[in-house]
């Protein structure tokens, strides 16, 4: 794997502090998940996010809530309707989802995974609160590693292959160019085939040229790239292209959700504009 591609995976973690603070602000996370740095970044960006909301109708926090709650809804359905009892959340950052779902479903085994520094921080956080245990664990992973102790193979080796599985990535996909993230999806689909039933949940920001706020979205994307010291490419033009892309990677059943269409069902106010972030449920 080229060195530049491998280093790019380290650009993701700063945004974890910001989103962790957003989850706390909206009562989706315990106070343990907020950080001083997350509060600082949130305050620093507040004038920009206010201007985007008032001037262009682009509510950044609403986009984050849309994707987070839609993934929650699909995970809930997988547990309650399809008997899923093990979940792996890759690039977990400071996501509170593992804590919320293990508290709600005691039978659930939840494995969170991230790059070593963030994984160590998450492990200490959960341990300090008494939440770490056999049902809720943290592992190190690098999605660009094709072999070794931080590869997908190592991550999935300790799971029960006789039981259904859900894998989640949130806030990860658009940090990578499409060929690189599709190589990850291809390897992921291959690993999931050994389970009797496996579902992958993720979100992405598609390249919606026809969207009335496309120019403002591009401006926001450039800002995210600067803040994370990387790029933030948009992927695919429509839901058909998304389905075809995931199918090329080995997924057979692909459903695309626009959370802006189901805001009220997610417990949010109705959306005024068409969605800019979509959630994907792909199965093998």
Order of helices and strands: HHHHEHEHEHEHEHHEE
Overall number of structural domains: 1
Please state roughly what percent of the residues sit in beta strands, choosing from under 5%, 5-15%, 15-25%, 25-35%, 35-45% or over 45%: 5-15%
| Architecture (CATH level 2) name | 3-Layer(aba) Sandwich
**DSSP helix fraction:** 40-55%
Low-confidence stretches: 1-9
CATH topology: Rossmann fold
Radius of gyration: 18 Å
Read across the widest sheet, the strand sequence of neighbours is 3-2-1-4-5-7-6
CATH superfamily: Vaccinia Virus protein VP39
User: What average pLDDT do the residues reach?
Assistant: 87
* Main sheet record: 7 strands, mixed
The number of helical segments is 10
Distance between the termini: 26 Å
Let me know the number of strands.
Answer: 7
Would you kindly provide a written description of the structure presented here, covering whatever features stand out?
By secondary structure, this protein is of the alpha/beta class. The chain has one domain: Rossmann fold (3-Layer(aba) Sandwich), CATH 3.40.50. Helices cover 45% and strands 14% of the residues. The protein has helices at residues 3-8, 14-25, 36-56, 60-82, 97-104, 116-128, 152-156, 178-192, 214-227, 239-248, and strands spanning 86-90, 109-114, 136-140, 165-169, 198-204, 253-257, 278-283. It has a 7-stranded mixed sheet, with helices on both faces. Helix 2 packs across helix 3 (36-56).
What's the layout of helices and strands?
Blueprint: H1 3-8, H2 14-25, H3 36-56, H4 60-82, E1 86-90, H5 97-104, E2 109-114, H6 116-128, E3 136-140, H7 152-156, E4 165-169, H8 178-192, E5 198-204, H9 214-227, H10 239-248, E6 253-257, E7 278-283
Parallel strand pairs: 1-2, 1-4, 2-3, 4-5
Antiparallel strand pairs: 5-7, 6-7
Helix pairs in contact: 2-3
């Amino acid at each position: 794997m080229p060195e530049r591609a491998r280093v790019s995976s380290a650009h993701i973690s700063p945004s974890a502090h910001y989103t962790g603070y957003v989850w706390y602000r909206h009562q989706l996370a315990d106070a343990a998940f907020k950080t001083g740095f997350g509060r600082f970044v949130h305050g620093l960006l507040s004038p920009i996010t206010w201007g985007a909301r008032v001037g262009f109708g682009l509510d950044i926090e609403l986009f984050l809530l849309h994707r987070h709650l839609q993934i929650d809804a699909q995970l809930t359905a997988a547990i309650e309707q399809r008997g899923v009892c093990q979940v792996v959340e890759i690039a977990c950052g400071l996501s509170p989802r593992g804590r919320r779902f293990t508290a709600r479903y005691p039978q659930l085994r939840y494995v969170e995974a991230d790059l070593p520094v963030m994984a160590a921080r998450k492990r200490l956080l959960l341990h300090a609160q008494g939440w770490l245990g056999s049902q809720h664990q943290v592992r190190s992973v690098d999605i660009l590693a094709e072999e070794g102790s931080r590869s997908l193979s190592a991550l999935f080796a300790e799971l029960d292959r006789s039981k259904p599985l859900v894998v989640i990535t949130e806030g990860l996909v658009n940090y990578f160019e499409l060929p690189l993230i599709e190589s990850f999806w291809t390897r992921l689909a291959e690993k999931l085939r050994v389970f009797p039933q496996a579902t992958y949940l993720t979100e992405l920001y598609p390249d919606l040229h026809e969207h009335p706020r496309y120019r403002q979205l591009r401006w926001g994307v450039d800002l995210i790239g600067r803040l994370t010291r990387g790029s933030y490419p948009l992927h695919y033009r429509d839901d058909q292209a998304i389905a075809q892309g995931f199918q090329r990677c080995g997924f057979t059943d692909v459903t695309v959700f626009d959370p802006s269409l189901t805001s009220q069902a997610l417990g949010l106010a109705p959306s005024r504009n068409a969605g800019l972030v979509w959630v994907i449920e792909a199965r093998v």
